[in-house]
Amino acid sequence: MNKELLIKAGLNKDEATVVSYMLSTNKTTFSRDLEHDLRLRQPVVSIVMNKLEDIGWVKYNKKRLEGKGRPEHEYSLNKSKNAIVRELIKKLNEEKKEIESTVNQLQKSM
Q: What is the CA angle 35-80-74, rounded to 5?
């Protein structure tokens, strides 16, 4: 999906970058892969993925890799591309109604 279109639909640049990447690869992704492939810093990836998890678009598992150390987060899409697009359209339509209501109220006040 086009990153610029996702930005126009209300996602910030980093969210649009990650969602576009995950939709295009359509596979489970580790946080380190997002950092490397998208050239994003770890805190940015963490913030974006937390937001996407909160809205239900992604899910994650903690995977312990070889040896000791911290587990890595393994992310995958929790919704299909069509479901994500439907949610974005619904949100945009709600915003459109609010704008139309405000315009009508302003016109009545003239």
A: 35
